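Re: folding output
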Amino acid sequence: MSADDTPAGDASEDPAHENALQDVIAVDPDDDPQGTVNRLDAHTGDGIRHRAFTCLVFDDHGRILLAQRAHDKRLWDTCWDGTVASHPVEGQSQAAATRQRLEEELGISPDQYGELAVTDRFEYKRYYENAGLEWEVCAVLQVTLSDVSLDPDDEEIAGLLWADYEHLHDNPEFYRQLDLCPWFEIAMRRDLGDGEAEGVTPASE
């Protein structure tokens, strides 16, 4: 969900690209690990199904924090996410990866929220222009901030917007100008609409 620009093909042969040195976890449709694969190879050509997560960040007033992806992102650049999305590395739990990205991208530390809950998991595949694709089994996590202080990383985040989640969920057509990321749209569409989903469980460490 956070790869940078590179031509299609065997991306692992491009040592100049930072993501060519990174791996993601290949998975089957049930999210069972199938080894690791090069991150760029997973996002180019026909793609490789891999593990990912998206975390929806709320405040105490029922608002969700939307984050605009930086303009130099290879996939879905300048689109709006709700709120962070990435991939755990081998040996890393979804909860640990989420905490890491919340702090790195938005300056949100664990003492600003309580329980980190996994609310859903789904598989999707989407292509983006001619730049590549996402083919992921995506876990959805949710947090509610008690302290909404933010320190966004300009290299990751181009803009921030608090939006009423119920209104956004029930009236997505009013927000089309934001150009929402597909994984966020799917997560929101599957959600019950009150910031929680059925079968909420704490994220495993």
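--- second protein (sequence, then structure) ---
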Amino acid sequence: MNKLSPEMPELQSMNITADNITKLKSLFPEAFNEDSVDFEVLKQLLGENVDDKEERYGLNWHGKRQARQLALTPSRGTLRPCKGESVDWDNTKNLMIEGDNLEVLKLLQKSYAGKVKLIYIDPPYNTGKDFVYSDNFQDNMKNYLEMTGQTEDGVRITTNAETSGRYHTDWLNMIYPRLKLAKNLLRNDGVIIISIDDSELSNIKITLDEIFGGENYLATLVWDRNRKNDAKYFSVGHEYMLVYARNESYLTDSEIIFRGAKEGVDYLQDLFNKSKLKHGDNWDLIKEDVFDYYKSISKDDPRAPLKRFTKIDEKGPYRDDGNINWPGGNGPTYEIVHPTTGKPCKLPTSGWRYPTEARFWEEYEKGKIVFGDDEKTVPRIRTNLFENSNQVMTSVHYSYAQTAANEFSTLFDGERVFSHPKPVNDIKSLIAYLSNTDDLIVDFFAGSGTSGHSVFLQNAKDHVNRRFILVQLPEPFNHKNKEQEIAFNFCERMGTPKNIAEITKERLRRAGKKVSEDNPDWNGDIGFRVFKLDTSNIRPWEATAESLSLQLDAYISPIIEGRSEEDLLAELILKRGIDLCVNVETRQFDGLTVSCVDGGKLFTCFTSQIPASCVEVLTKGIIDWHKSLKAGKDTVCYFLDDAFENNVAKTNLCAILEQHGLTNLHSL
């Protein structure tokens, strides 16, 4: 049985540096001397693609080297499960994680690298009033505990004032390592969206070009929110969303395109279907219902293009004024005979759109071409709205902040417990446009929980089960701050800690309940598992002389006091690279609890005492359970090293399990 220590890779978050070296070694083995890189050989292998120039295009700032290194440093933390704060723990596939997102992103690497379809973040905009994550390059886990009041040093919260000499530097040092880690999570067809305003737009664009590659830049979306009356020169009322692909060439090679529903089409189709049930084939009455809807749409409304579909038949609204000209001119000039008059039709000025006469008549048979009353009118293309309801998303959008505030306060019985939440419909439209069934969506600046709420809504609409992972720092509310006073008092009445993460969780609970009530025909996932960032459950060794004797005494039990079997299991799941939402089943064998993870990937027994007399029953139970699952030879078993009554009990357990093919045995 292999006894694990905290320094071993099995009990650490992903070592990204070691992983990168392994990948590089597989590509250029001749550039390595044992585990060291021979950069001269590597340069020769790369040929002309080496940039040795001291001056190069990019963005540099004080602390960038350390920020890059911070992303590569493994985390010393873990995520502890909180079933009591979760919703539908046993069935949900969603996660709400409370903690510093830098540490959390590190911890998620093994389980979720290359598995995320969409990342949306709305980081602090660096307006001078924003909370800024104050990272510590030496020990960020300790820094997190101090910052959130979990150590005796108390709370350490900072704002990034414009008077600071490191105004942009501090913000870039915060965002850079988080984006580096986020990139690893994306699938090859994945996309990341970053909300930002003018304060850091130029800096974040160059930074994203560096991390993701300028070739993977897809668009800058502009969201017109609301005008501000406090401007000196111009009333700036818009924000930006920068969109990058993980691998744009993969999207191109795989012929992946993004399309979204035209605004208002879903509602109109529902209206048409109801009107058709009511009026049968009376197209005049059905048209009246449709046109009543059109009248409610102003010319500036995003739904205004629907009003071009002025004709109605059994296929729904349509238009038959489409141009049938060959694009660019000099198209085919074959003769088309009018089906009624029998005479050749007038040619379009640039020739027919379709390359052959046969293709023209194929489109006609499909109902895609409409002839005029006689041959003097050039035929036109017919477009059925419900058959062409998807479109490319435009880069400019209109959305009002007040709408989002009202939506949010409605969930909280009219109380404005959160300042400036993002509009649900905006995020929902991005989720619909960029993700599909069962895709995983991540937001590691979760704030009020808009992303999770949006996933619930879009899933209910599509009858699917996209998943989400939200991460939010438990940033404390200040009751002396007017904007935070309502939230502070709300948490006080709820009896919860007074921080933003509590609002995030409560918003998800209320939103999930409402979405379920509003969509009784959808039985989807409205739950979430709550985990909280903390130090590892396994006591680390510290090499200082004064603490060595204390550690030797304490190391009789390597598990930190107060940690549960569920805490230990969650840490192993995370550091073995298994999804945190997998099924865990427990059984009792001779009074000893055994957990089985994800159909037999892991078996654990973290009971504090394993008597020698129980070994036979315990091993038989594990062996029979393993065989019934047909889990294979890769199963790993974990026990507490000091739980065995004696070495004989431990040796016998190992021998019996190994005899039946369970050879990956570890103790903590």
